[in-house]
Amino acid sequence: MLLQQFNEADRAQLDATLRPCVDNQRWIDEIAAARPFTTLDQLFSQALNAASPFTPAEVAAAMAHHPRIGERAAGNSAEATLSRREQSGVDPSNTELARALADGNRAYEEKFGQVFLIRAAGRTPQEILAVLQKRLGNTPEQEAPIVAQQLREIAVLRLKGVMSQ
């Protein structure tokens, strides 16, 4: 999408464009209210500012849409497509890695009560697994801001992807 199209989009169109980046109405509203943007950098900066901070309730709501690392998101939604692209480096045919990720995901969910969230784009499967294992050592109080930061990174990364199409 071109920046001019983004700036001129009606509200329903804008919501449909932004919601797959992160399903957070406050974030969408803040970006919409800041239009028009003169540069993409200005848009991305506003997106990051609107995401800082995400409240615990906003993180929990957004997390409901994220698949486990190593599992492919189902469906044809824009969000599922983005998730599959972000996790494309995780090869499910590597059974040893898939098992280690599944075990780590299970341990993470038991400890923190939510899926493990990481910006997978640009990371190798081994890096993702190492981060997962490291974060299992965190307390819930230590983990919460990390999850929120990862969600911010994912939201802005997805917005960049939308704007480059």
Automatic annotation (TrEMBL):
<protein>
    <recommendedName>
        <fullName>2-oxo-4-hydroxy-4-carboxy-5-ureidoimidazoline decarboxylase</fullName>
        <ecNumber>4.1.1.97</ecNumber>
    </recommendedName>
</protein>
<dbReference type="GO" id="GO:0006144">
    <property type="term" value="P:purine nucleobase metabolic process"/>
</dbReference>
<dbReference type="Pfam" id="PF09349">
    <property type="entry name" value="OHCU_decarbox"/>
</dbReference>
<dbReference type="InterPro" id="IPR018020">
    <property type="entry name" value="OHCU_decarboxylase"/>
</dbReference>
<dbReference type="GO" id="GO:0019628">
    <property type="term" value="P:urate catabolic process"/>
</dbReference>
<keyword id="KW-0456">Lyase</keyword>
<dbReference type="GO" id="GO:0051997">
    <property type="term" value="F:2-oxo-4-hydroxy-4-carboxy-5-ureidoimidazoline decarboxylase activity"/>
</dbReference>
<dbReference type="InterPro" id="IPR036778">
    <property type="entry name" value="OHCU_decarboxylase_sf"/>
</dbReference>
<feature type="domain" description="Oxo-4-hydroxy-4-carboxy-5-ureidoimidazoline decarboxylase">
    <location>
        <begin position="7"/>
        <end position="160"/>
    </location>
</feature>
<dbReference type="InterPro" id="IPR017595">
    <property type="entry name" value="OHCU_decarboxylase-2"/>
</dbReference>
<keyword id="KW-0659">Purine metabolism</keyword>
<keyword id="KW-0210">Decarboxylase</keyword>
<feature type="region of interest" description="Disordered">
    <location>
        <begin position="73"/>
        <end position="95"/>
    </location>
</feature>
<comment type="pathway">
    <text>Purine metabolism; urate degradation; (S)-allantoin from urate: step 3/3.</text>
</comment>
